Amino acid sequence: MNKLAGIMLTETSSPFIQWLWRGAMVLAGIILLTMYYDVFDYYEVGIVVLTAFCMALIGQNWMGIRWYIVVVGLLSLFAIQRYANDLALANSDFFLNYMLASQSAFMWMSALFVMATVTYFAGLFLRSEFTQKIGTALTWSASAMGMIGLMVRWKESYLIGPDVGHIPVSNLYEVFILFAIITSIIYLFYERRYQTRALGGFVLLVISSAVAFQLWYTFERQAHEIQPLVPALQSYWMKIHVPANFVGYGSFAMAAMIGVAYLLKSWRESVNPQGLLATTLPDKTVMDDLMYKAIALGFAFFTLATILGALWAAEAWGGYWSWDPKETWALIVWLNYAAWLHMRMTKGWHGRPMAWWAVIGLFVTIFAFLGVNMFLSGLHSYGTL
Amino acid sequence: MSETNNLPVSRKSFSQRLFLFLGSMDLAITLLLALAVASIIGTVLQQNQPYSDYLIKFGPFWFELFESAGLYDVYSAIWFLSILVLLVTSTSVCVIRNGPTMLRDVWNLRTHVQRKSLQAMRHNATWVVESPAEETVTKLESNFSKLGFRVKQTPKTDEILVSAMRGGMNRLGYLLTHLAIVVICVGGLIDSNLPLKFAEWQGRINIETRDLPLSQIPDKSKLAVGSQAFRGSVNIPEGQSSGVAFVAMRDGYLVQNLPFRVEVKDFRIEHYATGQPKSFESDLVVYDDDLAEPLTTTIAVNHPLIYKGYAIYQASFSDGGSALSLDAWPLDGQAGNEPLSFDTKVFDRRMMHWGDNSSQLEITSFRPFNINPDPTEDDPNNVRNFGPSIGFKLRSNTGEALEYQNYMLPVTRNGRDFYLSGVRESPADEFGYLYLPLDDQGGLTGFSHFLQRLNDKNVVDVIAREMTSTTLKSVANSDEKLAQSLHDTLMTLVEMFVAGGFSNVTVFIETTLPEAERETLGPAYLSMLREILARVYVNGLTLPEQQPPSESQLLFLQDAVDAIGSLPRYGSPVYFELTDYEHVEASGLQIAHSPGKPVVYFGCAMLIIGVFLLFYLPQRRFWALVKANGSRTDILLAGMSNRNPREFDGYFEQISDELKLTSGNSGPH
Ligand code: HEM
């Protein structure tokens, strides 16, 4: 029996666990809704329902994410409860100061992501399965600390002032953290799905770069300070548009890094087929397949995000499409990957050209994400560097 | 279509070949990438700016070249639209070509397959069961159904074919995705300004480029109320209303009539505790004959009003012609003494006359408060309140203008208060600042009075004589000629100073004194000048006999002398003090009518559903060919998927294991 295929199919949870998990998510949703029934409006109720539904869905066959959701949920609640109503506790309360205040959590996240990157690569070069498993554990922890940090930051913004409070996806600093978290979760999903940890270092390299940039941004520009929302960003569309976008960016980034690994492997194979990289990296067909999977996922969510952006623009700027630079670059990214998918699905291209294209795609994506903010002006007012 | 597809290319007619070309994948991919590259242009070159800006940036040659290539409005340039139209055509042809097959595939269970083709499939398995053929078929059917497949049995000559399929909707995904592209583009086309361009090309409308009052805009630049799409904007001052919107086109505009009037009752900006803006809102009243009563509502950023399919957005704000009361304080001898009070409005222009000179005053802006970093310092954190401010230009007869910025609240420097006025020659420069010292009443009278006295020949003459005689008395000299010369020198020094500040005096010293005496006499001249300036000032204070001027009066003198010294660089013969105002704001509304929007949204829904179906609902087909073999039954199982062959490996194995188990496998052979 095909080992890979067997693993991919048999790793489902028992029906009992599945129902338990779905039930827990429904319950969590209901509790949240009854607690905040008075303050939530339709959008917020919708978002809670949607979130509970999504978590029930992705958690039903994936033990890792179940633990993740539970740990993040409990620790966030714990931190919020420690805060009570006093923001100053961030510097005096032991747990907040050293672990859970958003700034501390983000520092943990940064350190853990960098450690995970190093560990994955060490595992790869030492051919040590165990070391790579530590890499996985570190990645989970980093991602959890980041998520807790975001949750706590959400609360902190309300502590600054009830009218200042907002979900932390509103500026470049916050979305960088979101990017790191989402990319790592997508990676962890495929790591389990394909039972290969050899690509961890490559994917985490992008995340570590994002972390490095974000640290620079914190210390150099004081970007971590929580600012109230400008009127243009006070919209519910923002809360779904931005995360959807980052599933797209994260997947594209992952595809590109797998592309890098693919190119490395195919180069080393031609030079020295018995060499380290040629033998430790996954099979080329596996990487090829993963690259497709990641781009397909990214494309689907990027489509969704762009459409959500259009709905938002229709409400905020008076037109669903204005050819604003950010919008236009989103279209460029989208067209690029549409062409990539056609090449692969209908013309049957695969292998090195597609890997190169995926890598180039990342540069297009980075320009849409950062370059537009740095070099071009337009209606997208947030996140100037 | 399938017959034409099978013919060799050379035997096809031109139209068939064109059809094939349009629907080809190569063209599709080329167009996708071409559109991406073309889109970049408009993000690099800022679109729809005033044409004069482009002219300055590129020079006349490139300006015209770029203009004829439509680069200032790329996204409605003919060549850009052509790419879009080609893409839509290509996608349509593709859907027309593949649609019927795809549609059939959604339901069709493929009952015509042969044993040979099943055996040729990548995934197949055979086994033998003990039960008779009919029973086996029933079992297989129920098993497939349980696994979520649609099934159908087809009797063949001596065997039975069971066809099963899951995920037929995947093919619908293809159709939805590609039709969505066509639908979205059609919707977008409905909302584009293409019909306007066409009307312009036919000569039915004319783009207006002049800045005219509404009543003087020719009818050819006005668009009637209708079902057409547009996106216009209009600035409405508080208390006023508008029944039109202005649609920007290239370097001009068109006037779009609305089927209603919008009045702006009030415009508000709310602030966070930190001072950043929190919301921009307008109270609107919509008047329409169709309404029993005018519609009253409030719009804000992200919360537009939709009325009769017209969407009204809060887009911007500006001054709506605030009423200002100004005092013009004369700064040179010709303009008289007392301040001249007058009322004006933001955006007003008027000629101002003083003596033989005149210039045009243009009020350009007004802000009711300025909580800014101090403009005279580099530190961005030193934020304070500078009160209301006005911005204005003084344009000379030659057309050159100096730009000014006056703040109404005094600033404090070393414990003394000043009015701050910035001046610059062009928007590219930084403001330079004039500090006018305030007297002990907190007004400009003290300064004006001193300045007036310095300009008054008679006053200076008296003081100069007085000073001459005391000076000569102290050295016991009574030479008439010396006295006259000293007196003349003092008069000239004061005149030089008033006309050009200390620098002017220095030049005077250097040009008139012989080299040898400059060393000693130069400083003496300057201290004489300071002395007489002080005397003019103190003398004007009308202090009681013998009482020396106070510390603060001496400081004021120093500040006033500094200010007068920099007046020549200030360039304006008057200082405008803002004494009162009534703030009127204008709300910038964007008004849009987009009949294509529902079409676009419908297309978007199709696109999302389509894409997710395409990627996440693989189509999986199985066939079981069941053949009686004595008392036993042979089964040939084959399967295929259109997505993800890797995952299907495992899936096929799982399904075939399950079927073998439940259909009573007696071992493979
Ligand atoms: C803006 C234009 C287009 C977009 C966004 C688009 C998007 C897509 C997407 C996302 C897929 C799915 C790829 C996959 O199966 O994984 C696809 C498949 C496909 N597209 Fe397009 N497409 C466009 C235009 C066209 C055109 C013009 C043609 C015609 C030549 C075409 C032909 C096809 C075909 C034949 C498939 C494969 C369907 C299948 O077997 O699954 N597409 N397209």
List the quaternary state of the chains: heterodimer
The number of helical runs of chain B is 16
Q: Would you tell me the overall average pLDDT of chain A?
A: 87
How many angstroms separate the termini of chain A? 54 Å
Helix run count of chain A: 15
Average pLDDT of chain B, rounded to a whole number, is 86
Provide the structure class of chain B: alpha+beta
The rounded distance between the terminal residues' Cα atoms of chain B is 43 Å
- Describe the largest sheet of chain A: none
Characterize the biggest β-sheet of chain B: 7 strands, antiparallel
| Beta strand count of chain B | 26
3D structure, described in words:
The complex is a heterodimer of chains A (385) and B (669). Chain A is mainly alpha-helical and 385 residues long. Helices cover 78% and strands 0% of the residues of chain A. In chain A, helix 9 packs antiparallel against helix 10 (200-221) and helix 14 (325-345) packs antiparallel against helix 15 (352-375). Residues 1-10 and 381-385 of chain A have low confidence and may be disordered. Chain B is α+β, with helices and mostly antiparallel strands and 669 residues long. Among the domains of chain B are: 113-167 and 619-669, Kinase associated domain 1, KA1 (TATA-Binding Protein, 2-Layer Sandwich), CATH 3.30.310.80; 216-318 and 586-595, Tick-borne Encephalitis virus Glycoprotein, domain 1, CATH 2.60.98; 323-330 and 343-437, no CATH class; 449-575, no CATH class. Chain B is built from 16 helices and 26 strands. In chain B, helix 8 (169-190) packs antiparallel against helix 15 (597-616) and helix 12 crosses helix 13 (515-540). The longest helix of chain B has 33 residues, at 480-512. The two termini of chain B are 43 Å apart. The chains are: A mainly alpha (385), B alpha+beta (669). At the A-B interface, helix 1, helix 13 and helix 14 of A face helix 3, strand 8, strand 11, strand 24 and helix 15 of B. Bound molecules: protoporphyrin IX containing FE.
